[in-house]
Design brief:
With about 350 residues, the protein is of the alpha/beta class. About 40% of the residues lie in helices and about 20% in strands. InterPro entries: PdxA_fam (IPR005255).
Length: about 350
């Protein structure tokens, strides 16, 4: 077999829904038609997940991705054997789960950096479990940034053909507005353009969302568009970037979904999240740009309240794997993204 599109799937927090959605995803034959999936995780936990979900799958323990069978019906697993199944408390915060989840990501990163896998698809991890384990990182993005020594990775959401970038993320709205400067708008238009080019979009059209109602209506409803946002867009345009806006936020996402723009630069966390999740909550996938490899992730948490009850949906995980496979084939490293 030509191992040209191996996707490493990290099992995530063993107490959450990660093992279940991993198993359910790999019970979908179409996954094997587009890539070679290999799981980095615990074989004993995955075996338990197979039992709970009643899926007709077998486990093939391997040492390296190149040993995988990649045959539907068999899950190839690089078994780190770092979960004590006897003491695993399903749906609970546990240090062993936080430590193990970190080790899965670390192993996947090493494989990707050494070109043993094309891309990484991650299942949910839990911030409290990481903290209990003494892991220095609070989430996937921080882990990947630290493990690869990358500079400020860029998050993009994709749902259907709608792509959304974020100028700011986990900040109060007041603090986010203070960061909406001409320079930051300009810099992010450049970063978004380069990120899309890495994913195979040759001449990206980037729309910048407005902040105020009707993008400020010429200053009637706020001056941020006049003072900072529009000048940032105009500067990018003067440098040859195909940027538009500010486009009123109540229409820009719909227009992008219809194909008018290749992506939208959302100005703050909820502006972009609401648009993505209202389009299709279950199929929204997070893609991390600015790394030496492609990484996709489900856009939901460990869901301890429903874990190990065979009710968690694998739709988002399946979409996550499919996008990792699709973009993994197009992805080309561009060192300029790390500047």
């Amino acid at each position: 077999m030509n191992h040209n599109n191996i996707v490493a799937i990290t099992m995530g927090d063993a107490a959450g829904i990660g093992p279940e959605i991993t198993v359910k995803s790999l019970a979908n034959k179409t996954v094997y038609e587009i890539c070679q999936p290999v799981v980095i995780g615990s074989a004993s936990v995955l075996a338990k997940a197979i039992e709970v979900t009643n899926t007709p799958l077998k486990i093939n323990e391997i040492i390296s991705p190149q040993e995988g069978k990649y045959s539907f019906g068999t899950i190839d697993v690089i078994n780190l054997d770092n979960i004590d199944i006897k003491t695993l408390q399903q749906g609970k915060v546990q240090a062993q789960c936080g430590r193990a989840a970190y080790e899965y990501v670390k192993q996947a990163v090493e494989l990707a950096l050494n070109k043993k896998v094309k891309s990484i698809a991650t299942t949910p991890i839990n911030k409290e479990s990481l903290k209990a384990a003494g892991v220095e990182y609070i989430g996937h993005t921080e882990m990947l940034e630290g493990l690869t020594r990358s500079n400020d990775p860029l998050t993009m959401f994709q749902v259907n053909n709608l792509r959304i970038f974020f100028l700011t993320r986990h900040l109060s709205l007041k603090d986010a507005i203070n960061l909406m400067t001409k320079k930051r708008i300009y810099d992010y238009i450049i970063r978004c353009t380069k990120a899309l080019q890495r994913l195979g979009v040759s001449s990206p059209k980037i729309a910048v969302a407005g902040l105020n109602p009707h993008s400020g209506e010429g200053g009637l409803f706020g001056n941020e568009e006049i003072d900072e946002i529009s000048p940032g867009i105009q500067l990018a345009q003067s440098k040859g970037y195909d940027a538009y806006g500010p486009v009123p936020a109540d229409s820009v996402f719909y227009q992008a979904l219809q194909g008018k723009y290749d992506a939208v630069l959302s100005l703050y966390h909820d502006q972009g999240h609401i648009a993505a999740k209202m389009t299709d909550f279950h199929k929204t996938v997070s893609i991390t740009n600015g790394l030496p490899f492609l990484r996709t992730s489900v856009d939901h948490g460990t869901a301890f309240d429903i874990a190990w009850k065979n009710i968690a949906s694998s739709v988002s995980m399946e979409e996550c794997i499919k996008l990792a496979a699709e973009y993994g084939n197009k992805f080309e490293e561009d060192e300029k993204l790390f500047e």
